[in-house]
């Protein structure tokens, strides 16, 4: 092998080693993130670096890289003399049942709603079409900031068919899930929902309301909910703080 080829091989070897270490760090971070989300560290303290090195069978530098990834995500903090501690917990939100946020998270604390806006508006044509309403027909619009255990969790923008939305405005929107109110008002259960989940950047308004950095990644759930008779009545755009919620579900191949 010529000197030029030898140098190229050495460079490739170093590049591969760096890539493999980065890959391994992400693997370790993924496992630790899952354990944090699952509440494995009940005292809020992660094992010492040496214990993590032994548990994962990897190098101390790789473990440190993994912890740096989680720290950058705002999940942990590393304090000299204290160790690595959990600073942000993401609460599980199941996708298998059609439930309101308070129903979904009742085991994890109290959900409080701050109603920021509520009333009749003429929506964009696309929203009217999704709710199977004539263009220009008013809908009821509700904007809520939702907190879990006092911390901002989601900003919910809700569009409702007028015949169910108007009575809902007289109800306790601050203390009751919209789903519960819809079933009470219509006298029938909810049936199904069409759901889209995607990552979006926090616009200035959403960032300010959710106390999140401008441009931070949010998890947006778009959900069109139908009554049991198939009629669409509730279209929501829910922006979750991505560091405080974890979506989960059980999928079957057939």
What distance lies between the first and last C-alpha atoms, to the nearest angstrom? 55 Å
CATH architectural label of the largest domain: 3-Layer(aba) Sandwich
Rg (CA only): 23 Å
**Alpha-beta content class:** alpha+beta
For the secondary structure, the number of strands is: 10
- The number of helices is 8
- Strand portion: 25-35%
The largest pleated sheet is described as: 6 strands, antiparallel
CATH topology of the largest domain: Chorismate lyase
| Secondary-structure element order, N to C | HHHEEEHEHEEHHEHEEE
Give the number of domains: 2
Helix content: 25-40%
Quaternary form: single chain
Overall 3D shape:
elongated
User: Taking strands numbered 1, 2, ... along the chain, how are they ordered across the largest sheet?
Assistant: 4-5-6-9-8-7
Could you give a short description of this structure?
With 254 residues, the protein is α+β, with helices and mostly antiparallel strands. It has helices at residues 3-37, 49-56, 60-72, 101-104, 125-130, 162-168, 178-186, 204-210; strands at residues 76-79, 83-86, 91-94, 111-121, 139-148, 151-160, 190-201, 217-227, 232-241, 245-248. The mean pLDDT is 86.
């Amino acid at each position: 092998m010529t000197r030029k080829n030898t140098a190229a091989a050495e460079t490739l070897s170093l590049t591969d080693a760096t890539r493999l270490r980065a890959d391994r760090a992400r693997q370790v971070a993924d496992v630790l993130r899952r354990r944090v989300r699952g509440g494995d560290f009940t005292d809020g303290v992660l094992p010492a670096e040496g214990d993590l090195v032994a548990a994962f069978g990897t190098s101390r530098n790789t473990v440190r890289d993994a912890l740096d990834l989680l720290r950058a995500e705002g999940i942990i903090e590393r304090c000299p003399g204290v160790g690595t501690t959990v600073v942000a917990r993401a609460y599980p939100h199941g996708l298998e049942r059609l439930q309101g946020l308070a129903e979904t998270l009742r085991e994890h604390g109290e959900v409080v709603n701050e109603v920021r806006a509520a009333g009749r508006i003429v929506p964009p044509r696309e929203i009217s079409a999704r709710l199977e309403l004539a263009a220009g027909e008013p809908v009821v619009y509700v904007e809520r900031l939702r907190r879990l255990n006092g911390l901002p969790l989601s900003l919910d923008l809700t569009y409702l068919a007028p015949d169910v939305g108007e009575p809902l405005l007289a109800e306790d929107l601050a203390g009751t899930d919209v789903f519960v109110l819809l079933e009470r008002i219509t006298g029938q259960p909810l049936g199904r929902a069409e759901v889209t989940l995607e990552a979006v950047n926090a616009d200035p308004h959403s960032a300010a309301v959710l106390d999140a950095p401008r441009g931070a990644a949010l998890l947006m759930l778009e959900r069109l909910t139908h009554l049991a008779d198939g009629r669409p009545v509730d279209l929501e755009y829910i922006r979750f703080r991505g560091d405080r919620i974890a979506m989960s579900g059980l999928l079957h191949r057939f």
